[in-house]
Amino acid sequence: MRFSVQPQAQHSALTLVSDAIKRGVDIQILFYSDEYLCSTNRVLAIFGSSRRYIARNLSISTLLAADQQHLIKVHPITPGSSIADQLDQQARPIDEFFWLLAYRMATDGRLLPGCKSHDLVYLQRWPNFTRLPHTPAMVRLAALLAARPTPVDVAARTLGIPIAEAFRFYSAARYAGYTDTLDHTPKPLLASQPSASDANERRGVIRSLWRRLIRAD
Length: 217
Hints:
Blueprint: E1 3-5, H1 13-23, E2 26-32, E3 43-47, E4 52-56, H2 60-69, E5 71-76, H3 82-85, H4 87-90, E6 92-93, H5 94-105, E7 120-123, H6 136-147, E8 150-151, H7 152-159, H8 163-176, E9 179-181, H9 196-216
Helix pairs in contact: 1-9, 5-8, 7-8
């Protein structure tokens, strides 16, 4: 598999990521522009088979900009390739990628598509706060939502934290798959693989987010 696409064509970088995770395939997305026609040092490797990723010289901010400004090339990751050999040493869980993405996009303190202030939210998987960006208030919010389902706006008032921080946390946590709502049967606080229905719901809100990004630019 090898092809190039324009940024706003059918295959955006985020669509490719979601598709690779859905199908359980391993791909690497290379970014280049007129300035770096042959550049391959900006790489996003998605290991759909193990739900992990590697970002090389590519921050979340750069990824969002690159998808609008750069061409994209996609290659399969083959066993024995240099990027495949780095899987165990460098790859991170894909949920961290979605946390970083949503956390970056919710900097204005508004809820991202798919999240509502009155959702009865509970934490089903604890974020790895040693690696993920957050504020001290978000740790307190996570503890509350792990203890009992609570609407996000009510949780913010209960803890006396800014509503913008609460919304940003909920947006990032939902897109990463760390939270659920009482629309579903509560699940135990375990770092387990998300169900197929959870994965489908997350892909839907991710697509909504990506359309919002394109309109914003």
